[in-house]
Amino acid sequence: MKKCKKKFSALYLLWLVPGPLFYLLYRISFSYPQFVEKVFSRSIFRVVNQALSTATGWFSFSLGEFLLYAFILFLAVFILIMIIKSILANRDWWKTLLKRLFILASICSVLYASFIGLWAFNYARAPLADSLGLNTSPATAEELYSVCETLALRAVDLREKVNESEDGVYVFSKQVSMEQTTKLYNEAALKTGHDFLSGSFGMVKAVTYSEGLSQANITGVYFPFTAEANVNVNVPDLYFASAAVHEAAHQRGFAREDEANFLAYYVTSFSDDAATAYSGTMLALVNSMSKLYAEDDELYSAVKKMYSDGMRADLSNYREYWQAYQGKASDVSEKVNDSYLKTNMQQDGVKSYGRMVALLIGLWRKGEL
């Protein structure tokens, strides 16, 4: 009987193995980016994620969002029961507590292994710049100016072709933005010959509790367990199409935030729809202008003068929206996101979003901006 019990206990211990094992494989994978790119990102992940995304795509709502709420509820109930049972166990309270903690650790181990296996290995894939053949070496102030000038002039032209509200602010259907994302990627793949951009995925979905995302200063979130790209539908229209394409980039295996941000511009730039292209161009322009300001404020001012009244109104409207959500919640959210990115080997943390400019510079150098 004792021997059988020992085997049973040892079998239970195996549930703790997946997390540490996958973490070890994950850290090793960063030494083999080309292998990860070819074997995982463009093969295993692509097949599995398209199938998973298609399956969850049958749900009109974000399945991942509700699974998250269910898991939080489960944790709360589990911990409450753990405390009650430990109290009722009297002298054996520590045995009951350890048993429950072991079960919780096992669940976390399996979930973490699943997170890495379904998604996180993509952080170790080869840089997008390699796939696109871009030179992303440090840029001069003059190169930054040229990029900003190009984007500003394009934004001015596109802004004249979009619809606006009675307040003179850019408006675009969020539903259309969510529905057209897969089409945008497939069109970009067709026009560029980059097949890795194409695929059959479920549409981008709205987060039901978008107000919560606004409080956390989040415009979108990707759920790797359901392969769903989700967006905050409460935000102003200006960057909404860009946010949808950004989250869809994660859905296609581009984990790094700078690359997803770059793809938000790159993919929308091939759209024949002025409203879609404008959203991506403004995202690229604002990030590039931040870099230019740090390098040369006079050149920054020269480009800023090119902005049209419509562009200024759109940017002002966007700033006003987010100013209402500045506070402890947004600060905590930023710190959590920063820690998450650094844990996944993105050493710049939340600053990595702005690294899209290096890719824009590479695109300009290639004559394709």
Mean pLDDT score:
88
Shape: globular
Radius of gyration: 23 Å
Number of helices: 16
Describe the main β-sheet briefly.
3 strands, mixed
**Total beta-strand segments:** 3
The sequence of SSEs as H and E is: HHHHHHHHEHEEHHHHHHH
Give the helix level as a range of percent: 55-70%
What percentage of amino acids are in beta strands?
under 5%
Q: Could you give the distance between the termini?
A: 72 Å
Q: Give me the secondary-structure category.
A: mainly alpha
Spatial order of the strands forming the largest sheet: 1-3-2
Q: pLDDT below 50 for ≥5 consecutive residues: which ranges?
A: 328-342, 349-354
In terms of topology, how is this protein built?
Elements: H1 2-13, H2 18-29, H3 33-56, H4 63-88, H5 93-118, H6 128-132, H7 141-159, H8 174-192, E1 205-206, H9 210-215, E2 220-223, E3 228-231, H10 240-251, H11 257-268, H12 274-295, H13 297-304, H14 309-323, H15 328-343, H16 356-365
Parallel strand pairs: 1-3
Antiparallel strand pairs: 2-3
Helix pairs in contact: 2-5, 4-5, 7-12, 7-13, 8-10, 10-11, 11-12, 11-16, 12-13
